[in-house]
Amino acid sequence: MSANPPPAVPTHIVWDQSMLAYNFGPHHPMNPVRLDLTARLAGEFGLFARPNVTLVASRIATDQELQTVHDADYIAAVHRVSDDPSTPDEARGLGTEDDPAFAGMHEASARLAGASLQAADAILSGAALHAVNFGGGMHHAARDRASGFCIYNDCALAIRRLLDNGVQRVLYLDVDAHHGDGTQNIFWDDPRVMTISLHESGMHLFPGTGYANEVGGPAALGSAVNVAVPPRTGDAAWMRAFHAVVPQLTRAFRPEVIVSQHGCDGHARDVLSSLRLSVDAQRQMMLDVAQLAREVSGDRWLATGGGGYDVYDTVPRSWTHLLAIASGQPLPLDAKLPQAWRDHARARSGREGPQLMGDGAELWWRSWEVGYDPNDAMDRTVMATRKEVFPYHGLDPWFD
Q1: How far apart are CA 360 and CA 378, in angstroms?
Q2: DSSP code of 210?
Q3: How far apart (Å, rounded) are the C-alpha atoms in residues 68 and 394?
Q4: Which Pfam family is an annotated match for this chain, by its short name (predicted)?
Q5: Element (H, E) at 288
Q6: Cα separation of 9 and 142, whole Å?
Q7: Tens digit of pLDDT for each residue in 111-135?
Q8: S-S: 8 plus which of 14, 29, 36, 52, CB 3.0-4.6 Å?
Q9: Catalytic positions, written as ranges
Q10: CA distance 26 to 175
C-alpha cells in the first residue's frame, strides 16, 4: 500500500433517510439502524462534505428497470404483498421468516435498487469514477424470488445497466460472509460478467451454494469464481485467499468497471457467520479493490454494502471506511470515533461501543508465492478454486 493516498476522484454517494424504510421489523437481524449509524459516522468525519463528493438522494426504480433482471410476475407479486402484507407469497420468498412481508415493501426495496442504478448512471455519464450505495448489496435476490433478506438484486441491476450502455466486461466481487448466489445465477451464462465470491462454505452457512466447481454456464465457463472458506477463518487466511485468486483473475479478465459488494458480516462479532475477520481486514480489502480499479478498470468502481448484523459496532465503522476509501482519503485505523457519534450510538444500544475505527488487529498473511501447503484447509480451498477456474483464463493454477 502506498504511503501517500491516491488523488481524490469524483465520487457519488447515494444516500438519504428514506432508505431506512427497508425494514423487516424490530426483531429482524437486518435492522436499518445500521444505515443510520453509518451515515451519521460518515457525516461526523466530514466525508459527505469532501469537495470531490456528491451526495445524491435515492430514487425508486421503475418496474421496467426492475424487469431487466427480475421476472414481471415476481415484481407483480412484490407489489401485491407490499399492498397487503396479510397475504404473503411464500413460493416467491415473500412473507417468510427471512423476508417478512411489510407495507411498502416494494417501494422500499425498489429504492435500494434505484440507488445502485443511480450509482451506475453516474459512472456511465462520467460524472463519477467511484460510486457507493452502502444501503445496497442485496445479492441473494433471484430473478423470480426473494431470498436471504433480499427482495430486488440491486447489484445485478447495476451490472445490467452498465452492460446495456456499452460496457463490455464487468467484474462483480463479493466479500460478504454469504455466497453471492443471486448475482452469480443471474449472469451464470454471460461471458461479459465475471462473478467472484469469497464466503464461508455452504456446507456450514446459508445459502448452501458457492463451491469451487460452480464455474458458469456453457457459454461462460470460468466466469463464476467461488472461494468457499472454512468456518472460523481469520484475517490472515482470508487475505491469503483473496490475494491468491482476486488480483490474478481481475488482471486476466480486464474489466471496464468493478462492482463490489462489501457485506461485513464476516466480522468476528457478527452472529450470522462463523468467520473471524476484523474491521482492519475489511478495510484492507477495500483498499485492495480500489487499487485494482486504478490498475485495471480505469478507476471505475461501484461499491455497495450488503450483510452486516453487528449493527452498532462493526457495520458503521466498516462502511465508513468504504466511503472514505472510495472518496480518496482513507481514515486511519487508530482514528477516534467522534464523541457525538458514540453518545448517539450508546443512547440507541444502551452500552458503550468501540472507541477507535479499527480493532487493533495485526494484518499479516502468507502470499501464495511462498508455497502451497496441502495440510492447510485454506490452501486446499484456494487450490480447488484455482484448478477449476484459472485454466479458462490461461493461468497456471500452481504458479500464477
Answers
A1: 24
A2: -
A3: 32
A4: Hist_deacetyl
A5: helix 279-296
A6: 33
A7: 999 999 999 999 999 999 999 999 9
A8: 52
A9: 140
A10: 27
